[in-house]
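User: Need the bound-state model for phosphoenolpyruvate:
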Amino acid sequence: MRKKLVAGNWKMNLLDEEVINYIVNFNSRKNEIESDAEIIILPASIYLDTMISMPDWDIKIGAQNCSQFNNGAYTGEISAAMLRDFDYDSENLHYCLVGHSERRAYFKESNEVLAQKVNRLIENQLKPIFCCGEELEHRKKEKHFDLVKSQISEGLFHLKEEEIKQVVIAYEPVWAIGTGETATSNQAQEMHAFIRTILAEQFNQDVADSISILYGGSCNSTNAKELFEQPDIDGGLIGGASLEVESFIQIINAF
Ligand code: PEP
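Assistant: Bound-state model below.
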């Protein structure tokens, strides 16, 4: 059985007081959650401590980024070892995004760099949520499968079987992120099934069947149910709609 996951990517939003209010509000409504999906929130790194320190907070937490280097003269960066060290005892911090399209586009992160980040996370017992997805021009030219295949093969295919099983993949078509234009459930399912096929070809069917593949891109309380009903969609990576407790709980309950 694959794990179902709903992860909220807060990006560079919410200040400390808003983070606290969100958690208090979320905790007070936990009895409304009817789904058995694992819930993850990915705040800005500076607020990981606020989240980890909140009482009664048993939701999993993740970072949005880490360095590809272990340590050294890399001003402004946070290493995977630091993330691990930070929450060594409470064990709430399990995940880290790798290769979100905003990082690929604005910070020019290549597949080679992303492969190194994946390695650093796995070495430090953190689970990478590896993002992939095509831009509109690739889809118009029917190059979207090739593009996603190259992102996944260059970012993940160097891993050993036990390592790839630690990875969650998030398919996020760039044209759907933050645009209000969601992929149809057919388009998303088609790509998720394709990703599972290439995982089976490179590793084996057991690996392909065990990896959770999330959909991301304008997923909201209206379209989540239909997306999550698809056989190869194991949950969602939610941006804008995770910033409000109400809509995030509705999406979680879409399972
Ligand atoms: C994201 O940034 O990962 C994302 C899916 O954003 P949104 O839900 O706002 O499209």
